[in-house]
Amino acid sequence: MANVLKTLVAGAVAYGLGSIPFAVLVTWWKAGIDVRSVGSGHAGATNVMRVAGWGAGILVVVLDLAKGYFALWLAQRLGGSDLTPAVAAGMVVIGHCWPLYVGFRGGMGMASGAGALLAIWPLGFVLAVGLAVVLQLVVRHSARANFFTGLLLVPLWAIFGVPCPLLMTTGVIGAIISYRALSDWHRVYKELW
Predict the structure, then answer these.
(1) Is the dihedral of CA 50, 35, 143, 123 positive or negative?
(2) What's the CA gap between 103 and 100, in Å, rounded?
(3) Measuring CA to CA, how many Å separate 37 from each of 31, 100, 150, 189?
(4) Residue 190 covered by a domain
(5) Residues 38, 49: contact at Cβ < 8 Å?
(6) Is residue 113 part of a domain?
(7) What is the pLDDT of residues 70-90, one digit of tens each?
(8) Dihedral (C-alpha) 147, 151, 156, 157: value to the nearest 10 degrees?
(9) What's the domain range around 36?
């Protein structure tokens, strides 16, 4: 029973952290606008870069990475079962994508998911960022690159022989990111590069 309670607490805290709308807050502070009303309509770092500049976008990336990292760091400290980090990872990304505090209209989950990966496997974080960059350059469409990044995380990790709980956590992050990216599959972007 204690493990279940720890997992529930980790998930609830992770959702609360994920729901902090740094993109909305930073864009309001820097440009006086709601980032969700312009560009792609998403509250994420890429849209912030498009509408408020690179500096604001980089700040949002750092803050979103931090909330993903802290959610998993906390889940690891709570203990629980092998399921606890997977639940926390899923909930921090869900919180970012569908945040409680701003009407469930958030970002795409890439930075918060990457922060969670950084907390549980730093090499995996580096590999995920590398994969995402390569796919962005090849596909040249943010949502499609995000979709394929999420889809390829578990097979990439499996090549490295990572343990099952880590694969499970990565799979949860990847599935949510891929699902979220589908909503923008046909959107035409003015890409940053």
Answers:
(1) positive
(2) 6
(3) 12, 18, 26, 15
(4) no
(5) no
(6) yes
(7) 999 999 999 888 899 999 999
(8) 110
(9) 2-182
Domains contained in the chain, number: 1
Angle, helices 83-97 vs 54-78, to 10°: value is 150
Rounded to whole angstroms, the Cα distance separating 128 from 146 reads 11
Structure pTM?
Answer: 0.91
| Residue 191 belongs to a domain | no
State mean pLDDT over 52-57: 96
- Alpha-carbon span 62 to 60, nearest angstrom: 5
User: Residue 187 falls within a domain, yes or no?
Assistant: no
Q: Which of 113, 63, 66, 76 is nearest to 91 (CA)?
A: 113
CA 148 to mean position of chain CA atoms: 14
